[in-house]
Amino acid sequence: MEKNYAKKQKGITLIALVVTIVILLILSGISLNIVFSNNGIITKAQEAKTLNSHSTVLESLQIENSSYETEYELGDTEVDFETYLKNKGIIDGNSNVNIAKLVGKKTSAGNGKNHQDVYTIEVDDVEDGYRLKYYGKNESENKDLGIIGYKKGETDEPSDPSIFNFNPRTGEIALKGAMTGYGISKDEEINENVTHLKKIVVPEEIDGVKVTKIGNRGQNYYEHIGFTSSYVEKIVLPNTITEIGDDAFASCINLKKINIPDSVTSIGSHAFWNCRSLESINIPDCCTWINEMTFFNCKSLKSISLPSHLLGMDRSAFEGCGVEKIIIPGSVSKIEYYAFRESKLKYVEIENGVKGIGDGAFYGCEDLIEVSIPESVTSIEYNSFDECKMLQAINVSENNTAYTSENGVLMNKKKTTIKVYPSGKKESTFTIGKNINYVDADLFNYCSNLQSFDVEEGNTNYSAEGGVLFNKDKTKIVRYPIGKTESVYNVSSGVTKIDEYAFYNCNNLIEVSIPKSVTSVYYNSFYECKKLQAINVNDDNTAYTSENGVLMNKNKTSINVYPSGKKESTYTIGKSISYVNAYLFKYCSNLQAFNVEEENANYSAEDGVLFNKDKTRIERYPVGKTDAYIINSSITDIGHNAFEGCNNVHITVAAGSRLNASSFWNSGLSDSQIANITFEN
Question: What is the CA radius of gyration of the chain?
Fold first, then answer.
């Protein structure tokens, strides 16, 4: 019985085993289907791996594109992106990607040569540029993986001699039709295929003759024939070029990149005049001189390295330039006048060997904080550091035999003359030393922190009272400190003379009273006092009078000071006035119109503008007048400073007028304003 029971149990076990096996086979089938089917785990893993490969390849190519764009912008490459990749061995002649070259290893997707799967660079038909495409074993696997770069359409590198004027005798080359000056274009001479080019590649030779020189300006000063064009952004020069002529690239306002070959030995004056988009430039070591206005108004030019053997630079070489740092090599004999005027210099190093700093060399460099003068400098001319509003110190080498400095103030070696008082000095009081025998009032024109003067006992030339600087016997006001906070100042009785620039830029003053003793006031004594509303004169004064706060000579034939802060919008020129200094109205922002009394024999007015009597000359345009202004054809002359301070005026010169750009040179308009004047045909 026990045996039968055991047999029965064995039968049950066998059945259970069979059932288990069957179940396992069913489950196994399901699992295999999950793993091996088209939607199985292995297939999904393979797809994920492939997608990851796609992503890796695309990302790697996008990184390559970034590197390419950087080199392209820096001017290190002149090829398109596809050629760039070919040169690096990343793609072959059929634009197939070599993955091993790209990512440094083989992937499951292949390397473009040894596998069926292929990645290919193709140029899109639209403006997107280059795209990466994947071609699998089956057509259904083919994929457009995305954009790589955006260089399509920027491969225009014209070197076709037909776009150039070329003199085979001299090797001089110039862009055809590009003739402009101060914004005046001769449209009939402009070749559209030339002027609209953004990138120009100059050929090494034309008809077997080497190109050696970029042309300079034409016979007419205002008609530049080099490469003047408002469209060109990049210019590539060959190594055959040895000379860049005067005005060669003047007013290429959109020019950002240009290579100057090491072969260039001479860069002409005005060569890059008003290239305000120029971001960087190299000056070859063999260049020994920078001519006048070479980089004038290159506002975007942040840095530049001067050749170590540079001998000199002419006037305004970097005037209005964006350069923030410069090292002037000791080989330069003199920094000429206006060389860095109104540039963005923050740091300047003058190496030992430099002997002179010209008039206004660093004038208006408002970001300049500190300057060191080496022992070699023996000449620092007038206005060298004027209007450097942040300048705090000028330090001088102890071995310098001509100059010294005391607390950052530049003086002659004997300390008898103050050469430069840094405008950005923080001190509120300045003490005139006992040895000082001459103080130029305009040294303090922008010293906004200075509130008072003191004078050392023993000084035989100067004295101070109430913080104001006087001559020794207090008959002359030498300088009223800009930072002095009082709004009203009464000139003390006994003063006979108010010196040049005595109150210049004193913007806290609203009213000044002059006693009867004053017999001399300079035309610039109250310049830029922008809040000044009235100058009152004692009735008994025999030299001067005032009318509604305007200072005049006693017989009212001349206006001496028109207070810049006057509230009136209209000013009437009296019948006796025979002379008007247009500069007097530079800061009169409230003044919108002039009138002239009918009996006046010298002046007239029309539409608020001041003219000479017969209306052939514009004497003064009011600063507060904001209308667009048309100068009619009867006007033959523009007066000196006629538009001084008129920063918002838009001028159109009527057809038939004899005026041109040069007519406005002394008008007070900036170069950019002159460039924007419209001359009707």
Answer: 38
**CA dist., res. 294 & res. 198, Å (int):** 22
Sign of CA dihedral 378, 382, 387, 393: positive
CA 62 from centroid of its chain's CA atoms: 33
Q: Which domains does the chain have, with CATH numbers?
A: 41-149 (no CATH), 159-287 (3.80.10.10), 303-426 (3.80.10.10), 438-553 (3.80.10), 568-681 (no CATH)
Please give the full DSSP string across 553-573, using - where no structure is assigned: ETTSSBEEE--TT---SEEEE
Dihedral of the CA atoms 154, 156, 157, 163 (nearest 10)? -150
- Give the count of beta carbons closer than 10 Å to the beta carbon of residue 547: 11
Beta strands (DSSP E) in 281-434 are: 289-290, 312-313, 325-328, 334-335, 347-350, 356-357, 370-373, 379-380, 393-396, 403-406, 409-412, 418-420, 429-432
Amino acid residing at 187: D
pTM of the full predicted structure? Answer: 0.69
> Please, how many CA atoms are within 13 Å of residue 530, restricted to the half-sphere of its CB?
7
Residues 134-147 have pLDDT tens digits of: 777 667 777 777 77
> Which candidate, 131, 127, 148, 134, places its Cα nearest to that of 65?
148
CA dist 575 → 560, 595, 604, 613 (Å): 16, 11, 10, 12
pLDDT tens profile 411-446 = 999 999 999 999 999 999 999 999 999 999 889 999
247, 223 in Cβ contact below 8 A? Answer: no
- Using the CB atoms, write b or e for 227-266: b if 16+ within 10 Å: bbbebbbbbbbbebbbbbbbbbbbbbbebbbbbbeeebeb
DSSP state of 55: H
Provide the 10 A C-beta neighbour count for residue 528: 18
